[in-house]
Amino acid sequence: MKEEIFTYLNQPGQLEKLYRANKADFKRAFNTLYPELKGNASADFWNERLNYEAEGLTWGTRKELLFVIIASLAAGLIAKLPAILSISEDFFYPRNIGFIVFPGLSVYFAWKNKLSLGKTAFIIGTSLFGLVFINSLPEAENSDTLILSCIHLLVFLWLVFCFAFVGDRKINVEKRLNFLKYNGDLIVMASLILLAGAILTGITIGLFSLIGYDIQQFYTEYVVVFGLAAVPMAGTHLTRTNPQLVGKISPVIAKIFSPLVLVMLVIYLSAIIYSGKDPYNDREFLLMFNALLIGVMALIFFSVAETSATKSRMEVWVLFLLSIVTIIVNGIALSAILFRISEWGITPNRTAVLGGNVLILIHLLSVTGRLFRVLSRKSGINSLGKAIASYLPVYFIWAIIVTFIFPFIFGFK
Q: Which residues cross the membrane (predicted)?
């Protein structure tokens, strides 16, 4: 390895190929050789590249920290409103869970991106409209339109938050893909925070129980509730101020899970044939089938967003095959919904699922087509990002229809 490094020292392309072939051996060999090469511009560059030490954990400015603390406390107070105002938890949480998470994040990015007064007013106004609307819906047991509104309100608020992150209504592929990358990073960071919090909770409750104090109820009602409400904001702040924390983890997770999910899906579809279950006559199975579809679709889109400019041909093949299998899953779910509509008629749930599946199918076909063009070398890998980013407003419009219009179309049933 030392001889090859010395030979290719002034040939950047060859040296890069050598590094990528075996990074660990390359670094060891180069560090051994560097004292002899010190002063050479190429050698100095590679020394900085290989041995750069990232800065330690940073916490941002005092203003940022103060904002994060206030926003986290505000989220915790919103989560505790049922106890403070004696509101039914069954009424409050299904309707307002999104307002614990998204408004604070939206304001955070509106502030960080220095959005204009008009854009900030749009974010606040749409969020307040959603808040007033969802809490004005009549309380009715087993109301399908209420459940659908609550679920799609989360999508609506998430996409309003996307606007705050991107800061522009125009199609900006890079910023929208960065938003998807941020979501992946936040999931990783939030999972780590929750794991650490669970360990701390167990230790704390256990230690106090040893000295005769049962703090479980108090700890759960206050510390855990405020802690859970603070996780999205704390995780966001950590990922924005310390991108190195999870910047390399999310792409690795995407690379590992994409082929695993592909294998799982193929086996699962094969097992359905022998299981005797089918989504045509089993409503619960159909719901799980659609949840699987949404999860796999999200994995595909996050995988594309994580490293859209640096994917190997093998990774593109995995995503292409995963997209094909997901289209098959979507086709089965779609045919099952159409079958149930033809047999038992239109309902709010069937209409919402039908519309959502059609939109997802169109999006998947677009992404799969781009993946095929990349594999056939008719377009670049960056075209994948455009296929994903340009479609997000379609989901926003559908979320608006289901959240705000469905209750009136179906008479709040």
A: 65-85, 91-110, 117-134, 146-166, 186-213, 219-240, 252-273, 285-304, 316-339, 351-372, 392-412
